[in-house]
Specification:
40% helix, 7-stranded mixed beta sheet, BirA Bifunctional Protein, domain 2, alpha+beta, 9 strands, 2 domains, binds 3,4-dihydroxyphenylalanine, two-stranded antiparallel sheet
Length: 340
């Protein structure tokens, strides 16, 4: 009996030592100590042992069992430690590793300037009207006192889609839509893309304009000048002033070119203002009576002023960009620098 128990013990210890993994160790435990296990079988057979030998045999069985359980416990501890180590290994987190940088985008400079302009004019009570990029010849030219064969059409090299339809060359077309749809008082700005067959360092075939139109009783050129003074201070800085120069647009009479005092040199003369102290920023004027009459607005009662701003031009001046293409090439190195 002693030898049998010795054998069970040796076998069990060998099996325990060779167990790879917790599952296998459990199988071994069941095979020896389980209900149908080898050692359990010996215990069950105790009834066949002569009564006087029972205490001794019982002691051997207990010793064997204790020895096996001890080994099992040791092995279990070892395997669990190993499993834990492997889990730590696989879930290892290096908190000193540099994090993946979350790139934050910013609005395109044109969108930024467009929003700034909308904010400024919005604070003065202007509403936003967005026209369409495809226009008719009538709204883009004729209704703006620029009929067929008018020489002023030459100033805007036009993409015609058909004899009747074209890509609008100016947001001024929106003036007519608004005046047809609404009775004065009118106070709108109209931002949007315009198109001309023009391409050099300061011109692009597609660019952005913002039209302004005010029609009400008693509107004069003074109102235009006062509003512009306010506007340029907000966009270029509080020391900026304006200067109006006579100009020509078919849809305004009188027409003016608006200059601002150079916000870089303060008017002394520098590279930006080409030594003149002044920078041209937009066209404007008092709305031509012919345009108002074409929209059935009584010119005895009402008058108005209008202006057209080149958004790219404002962005280029504000941010010191010397080539308009930089605004269309989507080069992140350029765009990232401009975040107001
Ligand atoms: N539409 C003109 C252009 O594209 C700009 C302009 C000038 C608009 C005078 C106006 C204005 O409303 O009054 O060159």
């Amino acid at each position: 009996m002693k030898e049998k128990l010795q054998k069970i013990r040796e076998n069990a210890i060998a099996e325990i030592e060779n167990s790879e993994g917790l599952d296998r160790l459990n199988e071994v435990r069941t095979a020896i100590l389980g209900k149908k296990g080898e050692l359990t079988a010996v215990l069950k057979g105790m009834k066949d042992v002569a009564p006087e030998d029972r205490p001794k045999v019982g002691q051997w069985v207990n010793e064997t069992r204790e020895a096996i359980e001890k080994r099992l416990a040791e092995k279990l501890e070892k395997l669990e430690a190993e499993a834990l180590r492997m889990r730590y290994e696989s879930e290892k987190l290096d908190v000193t590793m540099p994090a993946v940088k979350n790139e934050r985008g910013n609005l395109h400079p044109i969108t930024q300037v467009r929003n700034q302009l909308i904010d400024i004019f919005g604070s003065m009570g202007f509403e936003v009207y967005e026209g369409t990029e495809i226009e008719t010849d009538y709204y883009n030219f004729t209704a703006l006192n620029t009929p067929q064969d008018h020489p002023a059409r030459d100033m805007q090299d036009t993409f015609y889609l058909s004899p009747e339809f074209l890509l609008r060359t100016q947001t001024s077309a929106g003036q007519i839509h608004v005046m047809e749809a609404k009775k004065p008082p009118i106070k709108i700005i109209s931002p949007g893309k315009v198109f001309r067959s023009d391409d050099d360092a300061t011109h692009s075939p597609m660019f952005t304009q913002m039209e302004g139109l005010v029609v009400d009783k008693g509107i004069t050129l003074c109102d235009l000048k006062g509003m512009l003074d306010e506007f340029v201070k907000k966009i270029f800085g509080k020391d900026t002033t304006t200067r109006l120069r006579p100009s020509y647009f078919p849809f305004t009479e009188p027409s003016v070119e608006v200059d601002v005092s150079c916000f870089q040199c303060g008017g002394k003369g520098c590279k930006l203002c080409k030594g003149t102290g002044w920078i041209e920023v937009l066209g404007a004027g008092v709305v031509n009576n012919k345009v108002l009459e074409g929209c059935n607005i009584d010119t005895e009662e009402y008058s108005g002023f209008a202006f057209g701003i080149g958004v790219e031009r404002i962005a280029m001046l504000k941010y010191g960009i010397n080539n308009i293409k930089l605004l269309f090439e989507s080069d992140l190195r350029v765009l990232k620098q401009i975040d107001d």
